[in-house]
Structures are given as structure tokens and as C-alpha cells.
Amino acid sequence: MNETSLYARLGGYDAIAAVANDLLPRLQADPQLARFWQHRGDDGVRRERQLLIDFLCASAGGPLYYTGRDMKLTHRGMRISESDWSAFLTHLRATLEAFQVPAAERDEVIAFVQSTKADIVEA
Questions:
Q1: How confident is the model at residue 106 (pLDDT cuts 50, 70, 90)?
Q2: How many domains does the chain have?
Q3: Where are the alpha helices (DSSP H) in the chain?
Q4: What are phi and psi of 11, to 5 degrees?
Q5: What does DSSP assign to residue 104?
Q6: d(CA 54, CA 66)
Q7: Contact 10, 60 (CB under 8 A)
Q8: CATH number at residue 74
Q9: Is residue 85 situated within a structural domain?
């Protein structure tokens, strides 16, 4: 059986980058989540966006190699709560719907993101 990777089914690098480029401003504009980007310079935000794109591409079976830290180390000490996580998922779902990602792929993305929750949510 030759199953096409999630990376390919999502449309590859450009499509995943477009999703990240839509998602991050949504998160930054959310009154609950904006605190995570306070006091961050433009360069730091650009680097974070690129790491997110690389992480998503690599995790979806794409040809990119993620060079960032693991999720637990990256998010340690940020005090991300269940409520923060829920708000993030709301924005992620909205972004995926805005890009008309098919339900099967959308569910697969959400399932993957949910698999990282234990390493991200602290409080």
C-alpha cells in the first residue's frame, strides 16, 4: 500500500507555511494568548514562525529536518494552561477551516497536535 504523506496531502511546504502565517497572528491577537509574544522582537517571532513551519513539515512526513528544541523544553516555564490550550486549538481549527483543509487531514493534524499536549500544558 502506497499511502501519501500528510505533508503531501496538505499541499507541501507552501501550504503549511501559509497555515502558520495565518495561525500565528491569530494567536498573537488573542487577548488570552498574546502574553506569550510580549517583549518578543520581530526577528524572534520570524524565527519562531520558521521553526513552527519546519516542525509541522517534518512531523507531517515532509523532507524538512526540524532543528529546534523538543516541545517539552521549548514550552517549559511558560505556564500554558488547559484554557490556553483550548484557545490555541480553537484558532488552529479556524485556520484549517479557513484554508478548507479536508476533514480527514484536519482531523489528522488535530490528532497530531493533541499528541504534543502533555509536553506543552503545564498548569
A1: very high
A2: 1
A3: 6-10, 12-29, 42-59, 71-75, 82-98, 103-115, 117-120
A4: 110, 10
A5: H
A6: 5
A7: yes
A8: 1.10.490.10
A9: yes
Mean of the per-residue pLDDT values of the chain: 94
Residue type, 35: R
What is the pLDDT at residue 15?
97
Q: How far apart are CA 84 and CA 90, in angstroms?
A: 10
Question: Which domain covers residue 34, as residue numbers?
Answer: 10-120
- Across 65-87, average pLDDT: 95
Cell of 60: 507531517
Could you read off the pLDDT of 2-28 as tens digits, one per residue?
A: 479 999 999 999 999 999 999 999 999
- C-beta pairs of 101-105 under 8 Å, 24+ apart in sequence: 101/10, 101/19, 102/9, 105/6, 105/9, 105/10
Res 3: pLDDT: 75
Q: How confident is residue 75, by pLDDT bands cut at 50, 70 and 90?
A: very high
Radius of gyration of the chain (CA): 14
37 within some domain = yes
Q: Is 75 flagged in the annotation as binding?
A: yes
